Amino acid sequence: MDEGTRILLKVARLYYQEGLTQQEIADNLRLSRPKISRLLQQARDQQIVQIKIVAPFENFTDLENKLEKKYNLKEVIVVNVKDSDSRSSVSRELGIAAAKYLDRTVQDGDLIGFTWGSSLSVLADSITPENKNNIRVIQMVGGLGEPNTDIHAIDIAKRVAIVMNANLTLLPAPGIVGSVEVRQILLADRSVKQAMELAPQADIVFVGIGAPEPNSLIVQGNIMSWDEMKHLIDLGAVGDIGLHFFDIQGNQILSEVEDRVI
């Protein structure tokens, strides 16, 4: 074994097996710290050192990386759901994961938007109480469903604001109204206008994604009739975010329903 290979192996063992720092190795071998750093990189380049990451639990990092690259996303979090056929189980697991993401990413001064839904209700129950400076929570869609339910947009925004000790901006209007004329009147209201102007400035928004089906929250909560929903399905709707429906390619479905949404 030549001297170069010997010192390469020695440095690698001291660093990866013995746990010495690069500076400690440099002092012991009377080499410079930059030299030790180069030797460690050389050991990896020559595959003398091969690093293997062993997750202690089930994870989906490979799938997350593929999705991030395919769709040019900053971060994807894939959630394991024990019972994927159970709506409540899916909502719970997604909500808990979203709460952890919120805890990790929200920074001082952020404006955080929320729509509505069962997953976001779980999020509101699962976030860690932590005082951030100058946080504001904003309701991003008008009130939907029974006002006393915990999936209501107002209720979710209020609960999150309380836990985070944040300022709160509500959208005091229904999520969907009976006509375009009523919508225009409501949009002229000072409080509604204030929320609508503030919403596009949000730094991060947490939204529920709904499916157009007979047992959806929108139909079961009498927010829209099944006939209205069926019409959107006929136009190609496969899901919605805050009552904005989209097709299989992610394109927004334009209809008279869209014109009545706040």
Describe, in plain words, how this protein is organized in 3D:
There is one protein chain. The N and C termini lie far apart (74 Å). Helix 6 (118-126) packs parallel to helix 7 (153-164). This protein is of the alpha/beta class and 262 residues long. It contains 11 helices and 7 strands. Strand 6 (239-241) and strand 7 form a beta hairpin. It is 45% helix and 8% strand. Strands 3-2-1-4 form a 4-stranded parallel β-sheet, with helices on one face. A 3-stranded antiparallel β-sheet has the order 5-6-7, with no helix packed on it. The mean pLDDT is 89.
Brief overview, please?
45% of the residues lie in helices and 8% in strands. By secondary structure, it is of the alpha/beta class.
Question: How many strands, which pairing sense, and closed or not: the largest β-sheet?
Answer: 4 strands, parallel
Principal-axes geometry comes out as elongated
**Can you tell me the residue ranges where pLDDT is under 50 for at least 5 consecutive residues?**
none
Alpha-carbon distance between the two ends: 74 Å
In N-to-C order, the SSE pattern is HHHHHEHEHEHHEEHHEE
Q: What's the total count of β strands?
A: 7
Going by helix content, strand content and strand pairing, the class is alpha/beta
Strand order of the largest sheet: 3-2-1-4
Radius of gyration over all CA atoms, rounded: 26 Å
Q: Beta fraction of the residues?
A: 5-15%
Work out the helicity level. 40-55%
